[in-house]
Design a protein that fits this description.
The two termini are 32 Å apart. This protein is α/β, with parallel strands linked by helices. Helix 1 packs parallel to helix 3, helix 1 packs parallel to helix 8 and helix 6 runs parallel beside helix 8.
């Protein structure tokens, strides 16, 4: 198995070299707005991908050889927070450019979404998702002229996207692709399933049950957390291989010459940190995501500054020179991208779950809970794993961040402490006696570990 994994790595390295060539990245070339006007847009979301599990973000295992090489030709944003560590609400924020607390119940109006705005500007818009919580019935489809949620995994999703590109109207396009292959149950195919596992027999077997509620009820030990973590890494390597093949197909079609490609995730994943597996919590392993932006003609560079996922929509509109009147919660990064300037790391940033995580700079982070005595304060420069809650030791700093959060949101403290982050998008309740398509959706959710 180890020899097969090594052979696979060599083959992938040779193929990547053929795609990108060799050599170090050159000095960035700053472009003008006219350079990106009228380009196509391809947005790829690799669901549940942690930023710190990619080589280009500092990981020491070879989980992402292709994405690492892509990073060398792209603008890499190392400090991006998502607005919610759950699939439905994170995408809702990305597609609208607004925080969760600014969202209304139900789907967003089509003309306010990323797809709707680009469609109104003359773009052909399509989405191919991996089903589950990205089923259209959960409300992230507005604005797409075609929204396919037939699921099937990364390879099938990419194939459907290519088929659509081959038959699309002769106009600029916005294509959104979403895959779950990194998401639990962490069961990539051979040879990726065992590629990063320690030698010897695995200490824990998934069986036919999985998902964060199940796993977190088992009182897993250190070796079991490591085993799950390495299976997760294998899912990244498997997805990286499929990404490479997809990229080669885009290159063969000549689409990379005029298409902006953004690769990101909707949230990360806890893999034993704080003795937890899964997501929907406000800690950085779950809300810190990668964002890699490939722009034809631009040289690779590291983007200097604090970013939120809601920045993407206004940034894309500005890159395409499309006007808008909306006062987005997100901030356009286009001017900073053109000038190679930095974005202040002291900008306020907010991520919402049933608690709210607030950062007013690179070091201090407040998690607002239901009551003040349950609030959490972390100094990320000395405690990046958020293992030492110092709220009681530094009440003055906690109070300062609370006041800043209240001022930032404009919501009274008693209201901001309400558990509203999970209820903005209602989850459908279905029975096995429902329509066949609902039974299929229930099976998809079961396979993803959301139902047992």
């Amino acid at each position: 198995m180890k020899r097969l994994a090594l052979t696979t790595s060599i083959v992938i390295f040779i193929m990547i070299t053929m795609i990108f060539g060799c050599g170090s990245p050159e000095v960035p070339t700053v472009q003008s707005p006219e350079h990106t006007h009228g380009m196509n847009f391809l947005l790829i979301c690799l669901d549940t991908l942690r930023a710190d599990r990619l080589g280009s973000y500092g990981y020491d295992l070879p989980t992402s050889p292709f994405m690492d090489m892509l990073s060398r030709k792209s603008v890499v944003m190392p400090d991006v927070l998502v607005q919610n560590p759950s699939t439905i609400l994170s995408h809702r924020a990305i597609f609208t450019g607004h925080y969760v607390f600014r969202q209304t119940d139900g789907p967003a109006p089509p003309d306010t979404t990323m797809a709707g705005r680009l469609a109104d500007a003359g773009y052909a818009t399509a989405a191919f998702t991996d089903g589950g919580l990205m089923d259209a019935r959960f409300g992230n489809d507005p604005g797409f002229q075609l929204y396919n949620h037939d699921a099937g995994g990364t390879k099938k999703i990419f194939r459907r996207g290519l088929d659509w590109l081959d038959s699309r109207p002769d106009k600029p396009f916005f294509l959104f692709l979403h895959t779950y292959d990194i998401h639990y149950p962490y069961t990539p195919p051979e040879p990726f399933d065992n590629m990063f596992l320690p030698d010897g027999e695995p200490p824990y077997h998934l069986g036919d049950k999985y998902g964060q509620e199940y796993w977190n009820g088992l009182d897993l030990n250190r070796d079991e957390f490591i085993w799950l973590s390495r299976r997760y890494d294998g899912g990244i390597r498997h997805t990286d291989r499929d990404m490479m093949h997809f990229w080669m197909e885009l290159q063969r079609r000549g689409l990379l010459e005029n298409t902006i490609v953004v690769l990101l995730s909707d949230h990360g994943e806890s893999l034993g940190e704080r003795f937890f597996v899964g997501h929907r919590e406000p800690y950085d392993v779950q809300i810190h995501i990668p964002m890699i932006m490939y722009i034809p003609g631009w040289e690779g560079r590291i983007f200097d500054g604090a970013v939120e996922s809601i920045d993407l929509l206004p940034t894309i509109l500005d890159l395409f020179s499309l006007s808008y009147e909306t006062d987005f919660c997100g901030k356009s990064l286009a001017e900073k991208l053109y000038s190679n300037a930095h974005v202040s790391r002291n900008r306020p940033r907010l991520s919402e779950t049933w608690m709210r995580a607030f950062r007013l700079g690179p070091e201090q982070k407040l998690i607002l809970a239901d009551t003040p005595e349950n609030d959490e304060l972390y100094f990320l420069n000395t405690d990046p794993e958020e293992s030492n809650n110092v709220a009681s030791n530094h009440p003055d700093i906690a109070d300062e961040l609370r006041r800043a959060l209240i001022e930032f949101t404009g919501i009274p403290e008693n209201k901001i402490r309400e558990h509203s982050g999970r209820t903005k998008v209602p989850v459908m309740l279905m029975s096995v006696d429902s329509e066949p398509e609902d039974v299929l959706l229930m099976e998809q959710l079961r396979q993803l570990g959301y139902m047992q």
